[in-house]
Every structure is written in structure tokens, then in C-alpha cells.
Amino acid sequence: MNYTPVKSFLKHTALLLGSALFASSLIAAEPDGALSKAPTANAPLPEIVGEEVAVITQAPNVPPPVTRTHATKVIVTLEVKEVVRRLADGVEYLFWTFGGEVPGNFIRIREGDFVEFHLNNHPSSKMPHNIDLHAVTGPGGGAASSFSAPGHSSQFSFRALNPGLYVYHCATAPVGMHVGNGMYGMILVEPKEGLAKVDKEYYVMQSEVYTTGKFGAEGLQTFDQDKAIDERPPYIVPFALGWRSRSRYE
Ligand SMILES: [Cu+2]
């Protein structure tokens, strides 16, 4: 398995990295084959022992490593919220989020786990949303089963068949707008033999924000479809909201 990069410039530090580059190729590429191994065709599924509620975190934190040596039932609950957040000094943006932050909550499970996934769309939302997890090999990565109107919840289940670090995102049309507004995050499926021990781990995922106004234009900004199609984001946020953003193109 190939993480990108684990233990790169800081010895004994793992960076769980992702990039929410807004590109149709990223949205179409599922599951992310570069980070997963071949499907375990015909391999017997491990027995499910016990049940637990997943710890989910916001960047730059990751949930604690999985110490189990068996598969279990894991209950994951994510809440979609549409929230106005500061993008830069004097600049705000209405983000659509998994868990109130961009990138979305980090999910950590183990190969072989049976996941009962709950998606809650907050009553204050204006839009329906769903989730497409690239760790899920079923239709749409769970998208069809998780479509939820504002104030409603959905539930679906899956087996984590392949270890790897995967992106997830909202797949409600227009997908580009939902992803561009902040609806993405990461799920780590630890291999059943576990990961190498490190001193610290971080969740890092770069965001691109396509505002109607130029970089630095004050006030509440909205999504610019033309700039998104052109893939020239006024804002690039390297880690998570709250970090200094920069512009590559303006
Ligand atoms: Cu959405």
C-alpha cells in the first residue's frame, strides 16, 4: 500500500494527505485505485465480533489508530451542515460541509469491518446531500442510499473490503458545485495487519475555493461555476479552514 506520503519530511510522523482539486477526473475516478490494492475476490469475509461507535475528527487531527485484531461493526455518523465560515480577512463563504468543517470529518476503520453509516442532513440546510465514499465498492459508493433532504437522515451499510486512504464527497447534482462548496473528506481503511507505529499523525487535505469575487474581495462570496470549470481557483487553502489561504491565479 502506498500512502502519499507517509513519513516524508518528519521522521515518525504520518501525514494523511488528500487534495480536493476540483476536477471532473477526480470525481469520476472511484474508487481511488492508486491507494488501494486489488479487490479481494472470493476471499472469505472475517467474522464480525462486537460493535463500536467510530471516533471522527476534524483536521488536522486523526482518530486514534485501530488496535483491534478482529473485524467489528462500526457505527459512523456524519452530519451535513451548511455554514458561513471565514475564508480570509473580511471574506466569508457559505460552505457545505460534512461535520461543520472543510475538509470533512476524518473516518478511520479496519479492513473487514462492517460499517453502519448514518448521514444526517441538518434541518437548517437548504439543499439535499448524500455521500460517495471511494472505500465503498457498492453503487455510487453509497450515494444512492444516502440521499437525504434537509432535516432527514439516511442509513446504509458496507463491508470495508480494501485497505487504503480514500476520498469521500457529496455526489448530489450538480456534483461539481457540492464538491466545490466543501463537501469532501477522507476515510482510512487500515490494513488488517495494522500500520507502522509513528509518534504523530496529521490529517491534511488541500482545498480550492471558487469565489465569484477575485482573491481578497470582501463580503460573502458565492460559488463561481465558470471558474470551477476552468479549474483556476481564486483561493487555495493548504490544510483546513482557518489557515492562511493564497491565490495561485489572481
Ligand atoms: Cu451535497
Key features?
binds copper (II) ion, 7% helix, 3 helices, six-stranded mixed beta sheet, mainly beta, disordered N terminus, 13 strands, globular, 250 residues
Structural write-up:
By secondary structure, the protein is mostly beta strands. Helices cover 7% and strands 36% of the residues. The strands form three sheets. Strands 2, 3, 4, 6, 8 and 12 form a six-stranded mixed sheet that branches. The chain has a four-stranded mixed sheet with strand order 5-10-9-7, with no helix packed on it. Strand 3 (71-88) and strand 4 form a beta hairpin. It is globular and about 55 Å long. The protein starts with 12 loop residues before the first strand and ends in a 13-residue tail after the last strand. The protein binds copper (II) ion.
Protein topology:
Layout: E1 13-20, H1 24-28, E2 48-53, E3 71-88, E4 91-98, E5 107-110, E6 114-121, E7 132-133, E8 153-159, E9 164-169, H2 175-180, E10 184-190, E11 200-209, E12 219-221, H3 225-230, E13 235-237
Parallel strand pairs: 1-11, 2-3, 3-6, 4-12, 5-10
Antiparallel strand pairs: 3-4, 6-8, 7-9, 9-10, 11-13
Quick rundown:
The chain has 250 residues and is mainly beta.
Give the tally of β-strands: 13
Ligand inventory reads: copper (II) ion
Tell me the fraction of residues in β-strands, as a range: 35-45%
Helix proportion? under 10%
Note the overall shape: globular
SS field, number of helical segments: 3
Q: Quick one: biggest sheet?
A: 6 strands, mixed
Give the distance, in angstroms, between the N- and C-terminal Cα atoms: 38 Å
Rg, nearest Å: 18 Å
> Uncertain segments of ≥5 residues (pLDDT<50)?
1-12, 19-38
